[in-house]
Amino acid sequence: MTNAATFFKYKQLYKSELLENIIPFWEKHSIDRVNGGYFNCLDRDGSIYDRRKNVWLQGRQVWMFSRLYNTVEKRPEWLEIARLGAEFLKKHAIRPDRRVYFSVTETGAPLGMQRKIFSECFYVMAMAEYARASGEQRWMDEATLELEKIWQWSSDLTKVGRPSFAGEPAAQSLAIPMILLNLLEVVAGDNLKKYEAEARECIRRMLLHVHTDQETVFEMVAPDGAFIDTIEGRTLNPGHAIEAGWFLLHWAQYLNNPQLAETAQNMVRWSFARGWDKEHGGILYFLDSRGYSPSQLEWPMKLWWPHVEALYAHLLNYSVSKRADDWAAFEKTHEYTFKHFPDRTHGEWFGYLDREGKVSQRFKGGPYKGCFHIPRALWLCWRLFEKLEKV
Amino acid sequence: MTNAATFFKYKQLYKSELLENIIPFWEKHSIDRVNGGYFNCLDRDGSIYDRRKNVWLQGRQVWMFSRLYNTVEKRPEWLEIARLGAEFLKKHAIRPDRRVYFSVTETGAPLGMQRKIFSECFYVMAMAEYARASGEQRWMDEATLELEKIWQWSSDLTKVGRPSFAGEPAAQSLAIPMILLNLLEVVAGDNLKKYEAEARECIRRMLLHVHTDQETVFEMVAPDGAFIDTIEGRTLNPGHAIEAGWFLLHWAQYLNNPQLAETAQNMVRWSFARGWDKEHGGILYFLDSRGYSPSQLEWPMKLWWPHVEALYAHLLNYSVSKRADDWAAFEKTHEYTFKHFPDRTHGEWFGYLDREGKVSQRFKGGPYKGCFHIPRALWLCWRLFEKLEKV
User: What are phi and psi of B84, to 5 degrees?
Assistant: First the structure.
């Protein structure tokens, strides 16, 4: 039933889940008012089980609270929380050479650095959105300066220390153009035009991963888009491809390109069809495109983020296509997600379930789970239901 | 029932499993007679699903076939298989600076390098045992030369490119002194005296990880052995600590040190007691010493290697202690292992089961599973049953 009443019901549910369950958990347990930044290793009940600060999650939480402040309500406490993270990052996470640490201690001493560019990307997200929240231009200058560095590094990861070996097949990873495309949207804000040329380049590279004849989105392909018949070349990450789909659909809408929009929608539909576990429900974490056992030991697990990304991706598809199967995919994902992930005892959601849907890790925050995918998806869906309701 | 008839029955079973199931699988499917070396990514039926060659597994397979040749039977085909691997490694796996690649292509072009010393260790195991099989001194020279390099690197991993960060707590990992201790045994052969001083240093470092008051073996501790209250400091890997136990017991026997032998036995007993899954049986992969959820997503899985290492560790304990509980632990592990891991359809054993004991990965060989833990444990147990039978 897709009518205004249905959309209203969902809108209320997503809004209250965001504002009454998810956000209060992080407000209550994560904020470090002594050192700045956020504790992100939070046990089921919110208690801290490790005091490290993972930079991906620091940057994402700054973005989230800034975004809430900018789009939901001008609550001073949200701005203050965002400020605590933004200043911590600016002070402790970035090196003079503009590389950003992966993790730091409670007080900001460096703990680790990846030979990747993702810490840098989440640093930029934080700076850009906090610039709009604080109204201070210097944060936007910091964001655009770092974005330029990332853009240079992204075409050649040896620049961030990734070694290169003679036997490696030339390859490119979906993760890079995909996160850059989203980053351009975040930094551009209302002025997407500013980064249109860069976005078109990201889109070109992303489309190499979409093999329409096989209805498959590959994580790694040759520079010309050809299939690579190795463990990595056959790896599918359905949740990741679904997230890439909605990143792309946002830009397809801006570019007013229906063919690109159709491809973006298909990325979501195909990846969902492949990734859905027909036996136990939920979206499998990894698959091998030729049906071999994935080498990732965690391949059959059900993680929070593919499910919440699929919620918004299906809903966005439906908002564009009005197709019944897109709506059905949304409802199927919604039912699984709301049945299995929320913790009605201690608040927030579990992140890691086994194949059968039982909780495998009880913590609410860890080195890779923080205040990001769930609140972002709830917020995006809420806003989209609001639009759908009014149509 | 621990009598000669029981030991005879087990001896026959372990011997036939080794010589009629495990070894024929690798003889039939893994050997690359064109390029040398071994294919190690083998699907359930032995077919190759990736042609890369992982150096850990190349080195371990050379060691295994050389060991069979040296101790079981002088089969020319075993020597030839060992030669194919040893020459491939010598030609392709080691760099002029003595670092050893983690993986190479089918033809030997470099694919990857870890900032660790394990590839180097398995290279040494291969060279040393093949030296004894071939009777050619140059392979032993290669082994001892590389062992010296590893010894230098092992005290400071920044020498192999591991970065160091200001916020990291000073820490040492059990894996390093443990593998070195085993390596000294392998290289020394019948002349353990040769490396006694080095072994005593490894033992000193290993004992820092054994916290007797808590009956716990920690993977990572401070340089003085103190507990580190972080995710890594609380990490337990019961199978790893069990393997460390028998490595240590071998040296305790040589050193004729009953107190050290008792500690080694307790490492096995305590880790088994902690790691055994009381709900579903089998040994859990990772635990947190304070009961938090481990951050390793695969923590509840049942892997082949902790189980086969436990088989030999319990049996070795029993051979020393003659305690009924050590024998019971062996039989408990034996029952679980032989019920769940062997594949009676296509041969060899599965490597990765979910918590409930269902096969999670169907392949027989992958980037971390090759011809090593299972045949080594079967061979060690077979030989020990032979001794027990004669007592």
Answer: -55, -40
